[in-house]
Structure formats: structure tokens, C-alpha cells
Design a protein that fits this description.
Probable carboxypeptidase. By secondary structure, the protein is α/β, with parallel strands linked by helices. The chain has 16 helices and 13 strands. Strands 1, 2, 3, 6, 7, 8, 9, 10, 11, 12 and 13 form an eleven-stranded mixed beta sheet that branches. A two-stranded antiparallel ribbon has the order 4-5. The structure holds 2-acetamido-2-deoxy-beta-D-glucopyranose (4 copies).
């Protein structure tokens, strides 16, 4: 007799909780669903964006933009994409400049990107850590010193809560990808996932032009500049023998740049010129960014195939009130959205954390690893990345299974690749920038597709 009302209460409670959960989840999904982005062409896939709180007490929340695969999303893998910086936006760069479904064009319209990564996967773009883009911390003391460790932890909490909101994706193959400083974020997050045993079906990681080892990565800049004709023989000598780039950067971070290093640094960048995009030394620059007057005099980008001013257009687009409303985005603690954070103080000493060894431990946990390089980048050139991966393979005893060879997209060489064991591979993307999918969208899509499908890159025409 006494049990009956109790059971009834329990069942009633369970039902109420269940209903609340279901309603909660679906209303969250409805809130985050994007009906349409201003200026976008009509599409059939769904898009979502909004916030996931990662710290309830300090009201810290990360902003995401999720694009479902164009066709058959349930059977396609899920990719998390992270841009680097540290402090730069995955939405402003990854989604709207590199491989999202749309790029901002002229006259306030979005243009369909035919080589969007959502042709092969569901893609989740995350602005991380808090303080980047639309992501925020209401307690601004969070911004005083953010580290790799904090970033990885927040990203893990984000994923746990995001999967709660999108449980239908928890069984899909999951990949973590990114570029540049995400050479820290991606392996560190993957390692934390493995360690915390919340593996979310993690199958692999892919990192492009990644920072993995400070000295090696920074010091190949001299050879890259010199071999591409950007600096003279004598400057090359000074830049390698008297003061190299890792020393310059280390001194800058520590605030004690010596006179001799300052002089060499100035000499190098005077020879290189402001009118060279260091992220792609063969690409023309967006003149409006370098120099407003020169832009008016010299509008030669009209004939360019690649819109070198797309970064600026993304900034304009993401700062429109109607766009922010459509994205469910808020500006908290900042007056405008910017590509790279102006509020965040990232611990620059973290740049020296080597992440190459983390790739080794991921490989040992049977997580597939792809490292790729846009081969026109002088910021993290291919030279150092290729040798780091090669060195890692030797160290962990992985033999070459595909010797260094060309790979193809269509009838042209798309780059070179080498595969180690059945788990680690390296590839260059020919003619690509630091942001490879921006300048070589088709080749980049081909590479990522092969990686996701676990297929070899096309080795013949
Ligand atoms: C903000 O965060 C700092 C550091 O975690 C903490 O000491 C402070 O009490 C917090 N402030 C508020 C208003 O919660
Ligand atoms: C860079 O310079 C530092 C300090 O002189 C030196 O220890 C290091 O070996 C140099 N690295 C390279 C690759 O030349
Ligand atoms: C620069 O500062 C760092 C850390 O404060 C110190 O270890 C280093 O010796 C300094 N270098 C020079 C050249 O003063
Ligand atoms: C790698 O190659 C060496 C030499 O051919 C061989 O002894 C070794 O067993 C190979 N390792 C693996 C993991 O296949």
C-alpha cells in the first residue's frame, strides 16, 4: 500500500523528466537551427549554430556552426574543425574562407563553394577558446592567461555537451581536424579524449601546416624564403648563422629582443616586402588590407581566380546584425566580431610545447593521423613538417608503405605523399597556402575525402 503511491510518484517523475529532456533537446535543436543565412543560395542540408556552455559557474560558452552533409548525413562521418592563431576563428576562416558551404562574395551575397567539405562529411566549426569570435566568458578574468591545457579541457566539455544535444551523431565516425596552431589543439584534444576514455568514436586526426615543434617549424622559414627568392644570400646567412627565426620569436615572446636579432628580423622582412602574403608566397595580396591607396590605384584582383580579399568580406559579413541574428550569435564583452581575438591573452610560452610526440601516442592508440602541407606557405613550411613526420615514423618504428610519390587530382599532380604503416601519412598540396582549402579547394577536398574513406590517394592520372 505504501509502495504504490511511491512507485506512482517515481514513474510520474521519470515521465516528467523524460518529457522535459525530449522537449529540452528538441527545443534546443530548434533554437540553434538556422533557417537561412542572409544572402545564401538555396540548399537542401541543415545548418545549426549557437552556444554550448562549458563552465556554468563562470558562464563561459563556446560558439559553434554545424553544417550537415549535403547528402545522407547519417551515414557520413563527423568532422570537428579548429583554426589556430592561437585566438583565431574557425567560423571566420575555416567555414567562410576555406571549406564551408559558402563564401562571402560581392554585393552582400554568399556564393556556394563547390568543394565544401560537407560534400563528404558533417562539419562542426568551433570558435575556441572562449574569447575567440562569438565565444565568450562572462567572467573576463578568464582572458588573462589561457593555455593549451585549458583550451583542450574546454573543447572536451564542449564535445560532451554537443553530443548530448546531437545524440544522433554519436555513432558516426569522428575526426578532429585543423591547421596551424591547431597543430597543438587537435592532438591535445584527441589525447585528452583517449585519456578520458570518452572516445566519441574517434577514428583519426588531420592537421594542415601545423605547429608541432617550435625550433624546427620556425627555422625552416629561412630556407623557404631563400629558395623561393624572397631573401638574398647574405641575408640568408645572417638569418641562419647569426640569429635564426626561432631565436627571434623566442626573444619577442620573452620581451628581450636583442639589437642584432632585431636588425636581422627587419632586414629579412624588408627584403620579403609587405606586399607578399607569407601564408602563400605566390599569391597576390589583398591590397585593401595592405594599403588602401594602392588598392584604388591598382584593382588587379578583378581577374584573379582566387578572391584574395575574401578574409575582409568574411569580417564584414559576420559583423552584420542580420547575419548575427540568423546565426544566434551575440557579442559579449566585445564591440565587434574579429577574425583573431583582441581580448584573449594566450600563453605564448605554450608555442614551445612540442606536439609531434603526441601524434606518436595517438598512432599507438590506433588513431589514424594525416599531416599535410600547403606547399606555398612560409609560416609553417612543408620542409620542417615533412621531416618531423618522417622522424616520428622512424622513432615509433613505422615502415614506409607508400614511398614518397606524386598524387593526382584530375589530370594534374596535386602534391606528393608518403605513407607509414597503415596509420600515418604525410601529403603536400601543390600550389596551396597555409589555409590550403582556400587556394586549392578541389585538391584539399580530394585529400580529406581519401583520408575519411581510408582510401589511398590517386597515384595515376
Ligand atoms: C572570475 O574568475 C576568477 C578566476 O577563476 C575568480 O577568482 C573570480 O572570483 C571570478 N569572478 C566572478 C565575479 O565570479
Ligand atoms: C637557432 O639559434 C639558436 C641560438 O643561437 C641555436 O641554439 C639553434 O641551434 C639555432 N637553430 C638552428 C636550426 O639553426
Ligand atoms: C630573455 O628572457 C628570458 C626569460 O626572462 C631569459 O631566460 C633569457 O636569458 C633572456 N635572454 C637575454 C638574451 O637576455
Ligand atoms: C620494418 O622493416 C624492417 C626492415 O625491413 C623489418 O625488420 C621490420 O619488421 C618492419 N617493421 C614492421 C612493423 O613491419
Amino acid at each position: 500500500m505504501t509502495m504504490l503511491p511511491h512507485s506512482f510518484t517515481m514513474i510520474a517523475t521519470i515521465i516528467i523528466v523524460l518529457v522535459q529532456t525530449l522537449v529540452g533537446v528538441s527545443s534546443l535543436l530548434q533554437t540553434d537551427k538556422i533557417s537561412t543565412l542572409p544572402g545564401q543560395p538555396k540548399v537542401k542540408f541543415h545548418q545549426y549554430s549557437g552556444y554550448i556552455t562549458v563552465d556554468d559557474q563562470h558562464q563561459r560558452a563556446l560558439f559553434y556552426y554545424f553544417v550537415e552533409a549535403e547528402k545522407d548525413p547519417t551515414s557520413k562521418p563527423l568532422i570537428l574543425w579548429l583554426n589556430g592563431g592561437p585566438g583565431c576563428s574557425s567560423i571566420g576562416v575555416g567555414a567562410f574562407v576555406e571549406h564551408g558551404p559558402f563564401r562571402p562574395g560581392d554585393h552582400n551575397v554568399l556564393v556556394k563553394n563547390h568543394y565544401s567539405w560537407n560534400r563528404v562529411a558533417n562539419v562542426l566549426y568551433l570558435e575556441s577558446p572562449a574569447g575567440v569570435g562569438f565565444s565568450y566568458s562572462s567572467n573576463t578574468s578568464f582572458y588573462n592567461l589561457v593555455t593549451d591545457e585549458i583550451t583542450a579541457r574546454d573543447n572536451l566539455v564542449f564535445l560532451q555537451r554537443w553530443f548530448t544535444q546531437f545524440p544522433e551523431y554519436s555513432n558516426n565516425d569522428f575526426f578532429i581536424t585543423g591547421e596551424s596552431y591547431a597543430g597543438h589543439y587537435v592532438p591535445q584534444l584527441a589525447q585528452l579524449i583517449v585519456q578520458s576514455k570518452t572516445n566519441f568514436n574517434l577514428k583519426g586526426i588531420a592537421i594542415g601546416n601545423p605547429l608541432m615543434e617550435f625550433d624546427t617549424d620556425l627555422n625552416s622559414k629561412a630556407e623557404f624564403f631563400w629558395s623561393h627568392g624572397l631573401i638574398s644570400d647574405s641575408t640568408y646567412n645572417l638569418f641562419t648563422r647569426v640569429c635564426n627565426y626561432s631565436t627571434i620569436r623566442r626573444q619577442m615572446i620573452q620581451g628581450n629582443l636583442t639589437d642584432v636579432c632585431a636588425t636581422i628580423n627587419k632586414l629579412v622582412f624588408t627584403e620579403v616586402s609587405d606586399y607578399i602574403d607569407q601564408y602563400d608566397v605566390t599569391l597576390d595580396v589583398c591590397l585593401s588590407s595592405v594599403n588602401q591607396q594602392a588598392y584604388v590605384l591598382n584593382q588587379m584582383q578583378e581577374t584573379q581566380k582566387i578572391d584574395v580579399c575574401v578574409d575582409d568580406k568574411a569580417v564584414t559579413y559576420l559583423n552584420r546584425k542580420d547575419v548575427q541574428d540568423a546565426l544566434h550569435a551575440k557579442l559579449i564583452g566585445v564591440s565587434k566580431w574579429s577574425t583573431c581575438s583582441r581580448v584573449l591573452h594566450y600563453d605564448r610560452r605554450n608555442l614551445e610545447i612540442a606536439t609531434i610526440s603526441i601524434l606518436g601516442s595517438l598512432v599507438n592508440s590506433r588513431i589514424r593521423v594525416l599531416v599535410y602541407s600547403g606547399d606555398q606557405d612560409s609560416v609553417i613550411p612543408l620542409i620542417n613538417t615533412r621531416s618531423l613526420v618522417n622522424g616520428l615514423a622512424k622513432e615509433i618504428g613505422l615502415n614506409t608503405t607508400v614511398p614518397y610519390t606524386t598524387w593526382f587530382e584530375g589530370k594534374q599532380v596535386a602534391g606528393w605523399t608518403q605513407v607509414y604503416g597503415d596509420i600515418l601519412s604525410y601529403a603536400t598540396i601543390r600550389g596551396a597556402s597555409h589555409e590550403a582549402p582556400f587556394t586549392q579547394p578541389k585538391r584539399s577536398l580530394r585529400l580529406v575525402k581519401a583520408f575519411l574513406e581510408r582510401k589511398p590517394l590517386p597515384s595515376v592520372v
